[in-house]
Amino acid sequence: MAGILSNFTEMARLFTDVATATSNPIPALMLLFGAIFVGFSVLFFAYLTVGGLGATLVSDVPGRVPPQQD
């Protein structure tokens, strides 16, 4: 577990080094827009997943029972 956490911190440090290595703002903007794009995609997929699970667990018409067959 400690190896995974150290890998994440090392990755964040490397991305920061790349984004701030030059006076050119393009790498930093690319990193920012990439993070926004990935974050939006993850949140949208989570929204669809929760909606799909909710649709299967919650009935369309609450309080109504199906008619019993004799």
Q: Give the biggest sheet.
A: none
- Share of helix among residues? over 70%
Element-level helix/strand string: HH
Low-confidence stretches: none
The tally of strands reads: 0
Mean pLDDT: 85
Please state roughly what percent of the residues sit in beta strands, choosing from under 5%, 5-15%, 15-25%, 25-35%, 35-45% or over 45%. Answer: under 5%
Oligomer: single chain
Looking at the structure, what is the overall shape?
elongated
Distance between the termini: 59 Å
The domain tally reads 1
Radius of gyration from CA coordinates: 23 Å
Class based on secondary structure composition and strand pairing = mainly alpha
H/I helix tally: 2
Provide an overview of this structure:
- The chain is an all-alpha fold.
- The protein has one domain (2-56).
- Helix content is 71%, strand content 0%.
- The radius of gyration is 23 Å and the shape is elongated.
- The chain crosses the membrane at residues 26-48.
- Keywords: Membrane, Transmembrane, Transmembrane helix.
Helix-strand blueprint:
Elements: H1 2-19, H2 26-57
Helix pairs in contact: 1-2
Give a brief description:
The protein has 70 residues and is mainly α. Helices cover 71% and strands 0% of the residues.
Question: What descriptors fit this protein?
Answer:
single chain; 70 residues; mainly alpha; 2 helices; 71% helix; 0% strand
